Amino acid sequence: MNAQGETLIDLGAIAKTLDNGGLARTVSVKEGQSLFIQDDPGDALYLVKSGTLEANIFASSGKKLSLNIMQPGDVIGEIAVLDGGPRTATVTALEDAELARVDRTTLIDQMRRNPDIALELIQILCGRLRWISQQVEDMALLNTEKRLARRLILIARKFSDEKGHLNLSQSELADFLGLSRESTNKILQGWRSKGLIGLARGSIAIVDYVGLTKIAEFQEP
To answer: Molecular function terms in GO for this entry (predicted)?
Structure first.
């Protein structure tokens, strides 16, 4: 599962393609460096081999919306590489990362030769579409507190440590929902006073998972 709450797909055909006969090359991205920028040409597909990266979109005003966090096993750049359009987001390394990179022309050729590759990419795209549909539904039907609770739970399920601590600042959490830090802080402080979470500089811990799940109105998987 990634930060979008998606269960990762078995990428056997894609992984074999990337590792087969020099079709892919390994690229390294240093912490803070961008793999690509929003509106760049969609000339390659990437598979994360190590490290963590974040996908963001930016408005002309500079406002940032965080879309997802990718870890080893995640595919990056499938939309633009399939339709030939520009990149839909900026992807930046949160820590040093290595990725397998396959050029668009090579990928399209391999898809024609091996339908399993196309099927896996379709599954990835369907997962993205389901996620977007859920976000639209949440924005239309849920208040800010419920949306914030849902996103915090999804991120914590994947990225919290063994003690339940999540290395995520309030500003970073706000960026995932397009909220201001002030409104996010107000909700988090309320949860802390109720014993639902713990707060420290640059980190959040879910103390009462059941209570926060009730706020989020989540159905447990």
So the answer is: DNA binding; DNA-binding transcription factor activity
Structure tokens at 38: 């929003």
Number of Cβ within a 10 Å radius of residue 98: 14
**171-197: average pLDDT:** 94
Q: At what angle do helices 181-193 and 144-159 cross, to 10 degrees?
A: 80
Q: Which of 184, 27, 160, 139 is nearest to 91 (CA)?
A: 27
Closest CA to 14 of 90, 125, 132: 125
CA distance 43 to 106: 10
- Which domains, from first to last, does the chain contain? 11-137 (2.60.120.10), 142-216 (1.10.10.10)
When comparing pLDDT for 185 and 2, which is higher?
A: 185
Alpha-carbon distance of 130 to 122, in angstroms, equals 12
List, for residues 29-54, the tens digit of each pLDDT value.
999 999 999 999 999 999 999 999 99
Pairing of strands 64-70, 165-166: unpaired
DSSP 215: H
